[in-house]
């Protein structure tokens, strides 16, 4: 009897989700079931080749090695010999990469799969996999063979991979983790979670980006573990010489991405998962948000204040209170009696309106969205066919299954009314998905998963991504091919193809300013370059100094938006008094001056797959000790910043990489390769421009497009040797750039002892409105006697601020200054 009770107790325990984490390790003597043990691959006995795939088997389990390109090789494991369908939400559809050549050699103890750059070595004795370069340097190798455990509760397997970790190896990546930049010594899990007021090192957070970069002896490689189940990464935390990653289901399927530069790894990761499309120009201006601006008079007043105070701003946000009882796609007509008129008036004043849309649909038989979803069976259901119901802002809700293409299509069309009202952008939130009380959906909720089917355990981490994908697709159609602007809180690898992201509900503390700086760099090297924090902190109250320092960092955040919780005091740039307002204004103006530079960095991200933010350690990979300076980063290729992170800080030590650097505010030259102490009065922050760069600048505008640019200012920073710069311009709105309607200018600056030569060539079909450049020379170390443009002499003029410049036709090819 006692034994029976015990059995029942154990059986019911097995069914609770909480126990699942542990249960697979339990060898239960009472139930008399076989121990659930880890199983390892054995000796490969044969293999077959199928084009660029090689399938090995040990008689039962199979391993597939597929060569995607000379630098990217995928490894898959099928414990029982048959692979799952080869489908991934992360990998972009039109993947167009191929190896130039590859071959398989067999030696006495290994199979060697070789591309022109990488050797994948498969040990015959035990199936251990290693990746080397063609010189034989090992970049990454299995510590023990891939292994698995049966998942008795759900079917499928827990799959594991364990790599050897050299003493000097450091790790980057994993998306939005709130930890130090180097992930070594820590264990992380990926399970998209609504984490209001998260802490330093809290894990998991909102996003799942199972991609990391390892750097050892100055050389980098990447691992992308493309598995949507709950995944884990242990970076030499449990044992100092091992790094493991594993999952609670799905396949062991990972891509090895060769470097040796971190930049190459990130670019190749983008080759697999895509880049962010060019955002509309207004999306990279300054955005003002809070929970919530209402009623209409309040929104109008905010807009009025921006223009009155001449603080640039491109977008105002409406958080959930604009809706009728939090019903998505409706308006609260008491607060917003005529939204179309309000949005049109705002637009006439240069403001775009962005609105919040959540996934929870109120269970209300009189609400058209609920009716349509119900009628068409678009809402998620539990394992036993009951609807998945949970409480969110509107009360009792049901949730669309965005993993069903039909549901995505429908959801996309729901934006019609908002688009007709003039809404310019959409902010998708609570899409982890978040459910009050229980956190998220139970594991048994069923998903369509593009026809491949799966439980919520498999679909959880891609739910938010599929929601914003449907938003993006819907807006793209409804806005007649204008570039959509979307922002999402939850994400999986590849979300950059559809959206920008923010880091969720942070706190108004100095510590969180620092966490945000780490998160944005990490997101950027994890493929999500269009990212931002809630400037000022979502919850809690910043003082004027913290708010202002955060605003300064915000200028160098790809997405620049102030946002705060419903119960906080005012958070507009003027809310902290005139002293802080003046500094915030000057920094927001700086953002607008730098817009053409920032836009060009977005282009380099989109076309050349370069992350927008780059940790300082990435700039000089052989000097990994720079990882200590984790708050310093490059913003695009030519600007380096080190935000101020402490109250009352008068100065800070900044390390500058090799080469000369100009302090932005007064053009003083600092030598790189060493540290400098830089004054940090409140109205300044350490901003440096690389010698040899060409930085385009716009005049300050109150919103993008306010002024026509009749000539483009180019600041040419003298530097010895050669530097390349790009300036990208288009009309800022449609996808015409996909048909080459853009202008991409390449400048090469060559500085000698007595000369400076700037050459230009251009790509693309776009003809800007301006005809001339106004060129400002900065830091030329010799007396300028003659300036020649394509053989014709030009003369220096003084501008209204008494700064010397000269004008040249924008088509110039060669500028010689001597
Ligand atoms: C969530 C979001 C936050 C938003 C709030 C109300 O907490 O993260 O940005 O303001 O919901 O919609």
TrEMBL record:
Similarity remark: Belongs to the glycosyl hydrolase 31 family.
UniProt feature coiled coil, ranges: none
Segments passing through the bilayer: none
Residue span, Glycoside hydrolase family 31 N-terminal domain: 63-234
Protein name in UniProt: Glycoside hydrolase family 31
Residues annotated as domain Glycosyl hydrolase family 31 C-terminal: 610-695
Domain DUF5110: 712-779
Source species, domain of life: Bacteria
Gene3D superfamilies: Glycosidases (3.20.20.80), glycosyl hydrolase (family 31) (2.60.40.1760), Golgi alpha-mannosidase II (2.60.40.1180)
Alphabetized SUPFAM superfamilies for the sequence: (Trans)glycosidases, Galactose mutarotase-like, Glycosyl hydrolase domain
Domain Glycoside hydrolase family 31 TIM barrel: 277-601
GO molecular function: carbohydrate binding; hydrolase activity, hydrolyzing O-glycosyl compounds
GO biological process: carbohydrate metabolic process
PANTHER family membership: ALPHA-GLUCOSIDASE (PTHR22762:SF166)
Keyword Amino-acid biosynthesis found: no
Keywords annotated in UniProt: Glycosidase, Hydrolase
InterPro entries documented for this protein: DUF5110, Gal_mutarotase_sf_dom, GH, Glyco_hydro_31_AS, Glyco_hydro_31_C, Glyco_hydro_31_N_dom, Glyco_hydro_31_TIM, Glyco_hydro_b
Lineage start: Bacteria, Pseudomonadati, Bacteroidota, Sphingobacteriia, Sphingobacteriales
């Amino acid at each position: 009897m006692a034994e029976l009770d015990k059995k029942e107790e154990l059986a019911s325990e097995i069914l609770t989700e909480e126990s699942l984490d542990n249960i697979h390790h339990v060898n239960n003597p009472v139930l008399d079931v076989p121990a659930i043990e880890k199983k390892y691959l054995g000796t490969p006995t044969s293999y077959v080749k199928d084009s660029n795939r090689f399938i090995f088997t040990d008689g039962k389990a199979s391993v597939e090695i597929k060569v995607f390109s000379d630098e990217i090789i995928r490894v898959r494991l099928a414990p029982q010999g048959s692979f799952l369908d080869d489908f991934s939400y992360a990998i972009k559809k039109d993947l167009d990469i191929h190896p130039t050549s590859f071959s398989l050699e067999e030696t006495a103890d290994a199979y060697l799969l070789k591309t022109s750059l990488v050797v994948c070595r498969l040990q015959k004795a035990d199936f251990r996999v290693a990746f080397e370069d063609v010189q034989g340097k090992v970049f990454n190798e299995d510590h023990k063979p891939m292994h698995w455990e049966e998942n008795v509760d759900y079917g499928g397997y827990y799959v594991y991979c364990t790599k050897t970790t050299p003493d000097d190896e450091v790790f980057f990546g994993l998306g939005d983790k709130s930890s130090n930049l180097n992930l070594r010594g820590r264990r992380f899990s990926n399970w998209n979670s609504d984490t209001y007021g998260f802490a330093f090192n809290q894990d998991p957070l909102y996003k799942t980006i199972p991609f990391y970069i390892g750097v050892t002896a100055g050389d980098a490689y990447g691992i992308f573990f493309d598995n949507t189940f709950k995944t884990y990464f242990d970076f030499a935390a449990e044992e100092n010489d091992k790094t493991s990653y594993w999952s609670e289901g799905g396949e062991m399927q990972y891509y090895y991405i060769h470097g040796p530069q971190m930049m190459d790894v990130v670019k190749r990761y983008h080759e697999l998962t895509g880049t962010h499309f060019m955002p509309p120009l207004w999306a990279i201006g300054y955005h003002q948000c809070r929970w919530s601006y209402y009623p209409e008079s309040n929104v109008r007043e905010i807009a009025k204040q921006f223009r009155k105070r001449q603080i640039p701003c491109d977008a105002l946000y409406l958080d959930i209170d604009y809706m009728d009882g939090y019903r998505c796609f409706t308006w609260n007509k008491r607060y917003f009696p005529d939204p179309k008129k309000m949005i049109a008036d705002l637009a006439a004043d240069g403001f775009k309106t962005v609105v919040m849309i959540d996934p929870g649909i109120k269970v209300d038989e009189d609400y058209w969205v609920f009716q349509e979803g119900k009628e068409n069976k678009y809402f998620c259901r539990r394992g036993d066919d009951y609807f998945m119901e949970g409480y969110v802002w509107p009360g009792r809700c049901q949730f669309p299954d965005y993993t069903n293409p039909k549901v995505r299509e429908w959801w996309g069309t729901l934006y019609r009314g908002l688009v007709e009202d003039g809404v310019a952008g959409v902010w998708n939130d609570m899409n982890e998905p978040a459910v009050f009380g229980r956190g998220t959906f139970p594991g048994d909720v069923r998903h369509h998963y593009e026809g491949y089917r799966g439980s919520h355990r498999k679909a959880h981490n891609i739910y938010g991504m599929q929601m914003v994908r449907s938003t993006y697709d819907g807006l793209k159609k409804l806005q007649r091919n204008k570039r959509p602007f979307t922002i999402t809180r939850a994400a999986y690898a590849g979300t950059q193809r559809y959206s920008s992201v923010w880091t969720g509900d942070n706190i108004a503390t100095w510590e969180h300013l620092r966490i945000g700086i780490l998160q944005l760099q990490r997101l950027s090297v994890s493929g999500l370059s269009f990212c931002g924090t809630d400037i000022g902190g979502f919850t809690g109250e910043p003082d004027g100094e913290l708010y202002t320092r955060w605003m300064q960092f915000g200028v160098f955040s790809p997405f620049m938006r102030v946002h705060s919780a419903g119960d906080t005091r005012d958070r507009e740039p003027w809310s902290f008094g005139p002293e802080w307002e003046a500094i915030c204004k000057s920094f927001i103006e700086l953002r607008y001056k730098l817009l053409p530079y920032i836009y060009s960095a977005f282009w380099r991200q989109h076309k050349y797959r370069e992350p927008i933010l780059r940790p300082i350690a990435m700039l000089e990979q052989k000097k990994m000790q720079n990882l200590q300076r984790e708050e310093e980063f490059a913003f695009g290729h030519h600007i380096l910043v080190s935000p101020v992170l402490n109250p009352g800080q008068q100065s800070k030590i900044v390390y500058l990489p090799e080469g000369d650097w100009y302090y932005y505010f007064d053009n003083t030259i600092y030598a790189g390769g060493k540290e400098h102490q830089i004054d940090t009065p409140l109205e300044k922050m350490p901003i440096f421009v690389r010698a040899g760069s060409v930085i385009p600048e716009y005049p300050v505008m109150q919103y993008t497009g306010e002024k026509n640019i009749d000539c483009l200012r180019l600041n040419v920073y003298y530097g010895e040797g050669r530097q390349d710069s790009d300036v990208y311009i288009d009309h800022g709105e449609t996808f015409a750039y996909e048909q080459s309607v853009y202008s991409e200018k390449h400048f090469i600056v060559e500085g000698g002892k007595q000369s400076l030569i700037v050459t230009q060539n251009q790509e693309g079909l776009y003809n800007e409105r301006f005809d001339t450049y106004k060129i400002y020379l900065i830091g030329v170390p010799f007396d300028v006697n003659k300036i020649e443009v394509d053989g014709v002499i030009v003369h220096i003029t003084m501008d209204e601020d008494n700064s010397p410049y000269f004008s040249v036709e924008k088509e110039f090819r060669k500028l010689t200054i001597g």
